[in-house]
Amino acid sequence: MRNKKNKKDAKEGRKTLPIRLNLLFLAAFIIFTGVVVRLGFVQIVNGEDYKKQAEKQEDVNVSSSAPRGKIYDRNYNTIVSNKALNAITYTRTSTTSQEERLKVASKLADMIHVSTKKITDRDKKDFWILTHPNEAKKLVQKESELKGDDKVSDDKLYELQLKRITDKELNQLTKKDLQVLAIKRQMDGGYALTPQFIKNEDVKPSEIAYVSEHLDELPGVDVTTDWSRSYPYKGLLRSMLGSVSSSDEGLPQSLLEHYLSLGYSRNDRVGKSYLEYQYEDVLQGQKEKEQSTTDKQGNVTSSKVLTEGKSGKDLVLTIDIQLQKAVEKIIEKNLRSAKQRGGTELLDRAFVVMMDPRNGEVLSVAGKQISNKNGKYKFDDYALGTMTSSYAMGSAVKGATVLTGYKTGAIHIGSTQYDEPLYIAQSPPKKSYQNMGLINDLTALERSSNVYMFKTAIAIGKSEYRKNQALPIDPKAFDTFRYNFSKFGLGVKTGIDLPNEATGYRGTSTQSGLLLDYAIGQYDTFTPLQMAQYVSTIANGGYRLRPQLVKEVREPDPQRGIGAVTESVKPDVLNKLDMTSDEIKRVQQGFKLVMQNPRGTAYSNFGNKKYNPAGKTGTAQSFYDGPIKSKRGTPTYNTTLVAYAPADNPEVAISVVVPWVYQDYNQRYPITNDIGEQVLDKYFELKSKQESNDTQAKNKNKIENEAETNN
Description:
GO terms for molecular function: penicillin binding; peptidoglycan L,D-transpeptidase activity; serine-type D-Ala-D-Ala carboxypeptidase activity. This protein is of the alpha+beta class. The chain contains 25 helices and 20 strands. The strands form five sheets. Strands 2, 3, 4, 5, 8, 15 and 16 form a seven-stranded mixed β-sheet that branches. Strands 11-10-9-20-19-18 form a six-stranded antiparallel β-sheet. Strands 1-6-7 form a three-stranded antiparallel β-sheet, with no helix packed on it.
């Protein structure tokens, strides 16, 4: 029974198989028919559209730079701005040939005149090969005819052509050829679809007009505007403001990797040094980004703006440009006067730094170098030297020495020492400029006693002076001095918002006599900026503030000029002196005596000033290490001054440094004190005028408001 049933099932299965195959063939036929119909529809109806799409290339994003932000002084006077320039540009596609660019360059050369100074011999050779193809082939005819394994590559042939071109061939290039070459050289640079400046300096109106009339004959050429940095106050602060790369230069080679890592393009214009470099991320404008779509030939078929361009943000400096201008004139006047007196062969520079000791704002930072050319004195800006050059500062640092003495317990308030020559074995006598007898810490500052500082240093070095005997000093005393001096900003970076700040020279020897020299500012060297931070720290009661050149960052506002504040720089306390308030006030009292007591070393300049000054003078015996190589090592003297005012509520602190001022101590001139006096006088004069103007403005507004109320 079971076998019969199995045979019946098999017979029925064979009957259903053809039916299933027929259904499968029918389904395949329907699907295939649908595909054919769809393909036909696509080709007939949408074929042209898809063909165009297939011929399109990838979308290309192009960025164009925006003007940099402006720089203002604290009173919103423009120090650095942008000057609009007429410009002629060329934008090449990815498929533009050498011959096409040469044709455009030849036409453009008849319309404008460009500089040929940047053309190199290699440029000339490349151009000669391009414009003299038959003659160029003859130079390598033998090599080019080789076949098989002996065949020379095209790159090798080109190298041979370059080597075999002589001056004879290059002299075939005419003045017109060089103009064409200079233009084409600019065309070949940069990226495809990115405008390249052909000419953006000294573009004549007639050139702009002529090119504009013939743009239809010059594919890729356009007439537009560019910008360059403008300095309304000419040389003021020029070295410290820094510089910006040109449109030709793009990213400077020395900063190439740095800027590329930040997403810049190689042809971007950027800050190269100091303020322009330090605040590049603020001053650099926001690029306009445009997306362009090109066809198979590289022609732009459509474009759209992805991001609107925007000018860079503006910097407001702490500098008072009117004060800066006056300070620079004062330096120049005194340098000229000193040189005219004679006896100052090596004198060639002077520095002034002015700070607000309440917040660290730099009010003026000035440096000048003087040179005599053909009987006329010439002055160059050297404001940068206030932070990049260092000198032995002499007695001006004695405030730090006294406070270090207090801190270590070597002396205390009111300690007395006998000022007398010190006779140390195998050493010349070490003494003050006069024997002062028994003096205390105030008199030591007032009259600038060296011996008082020597004996303080001996105590810090855990030693004891014995006449005509050796003076063993604990070498750790050098570290003690340097650690405490660093708390004033001496021998360390001040933290100013600029790159490349110097720290000064730190001596390596630990001979006992050098520790005594350190105590009077004649061993390690410091910068004028460090000296300003040091005296500010004493003036404000012991707070070392970071010197700041930037006060605010503001949005650009073409209509009103000054836009909204986006960032306001706050005072930054780097450290507080680890000394008591009484100890700091004691040194402040000594500094006041320096200027206001008849025995003080600066009394002749400051004794009758109403602005209540305090400070410390300095003279350091040093050795010349300036630009005149034959004079290096010559004994000379540096003179210094640190000061602040008013003594009871300081609002301004200054350092004045004049290195290599004279070679003979007996021929000394008070140039440093004179500069300091004139600078502080000018500060309070300008302040008085500003207050008077503010009062007049308030009275005027009051009268106008009353008149409106009555009406």
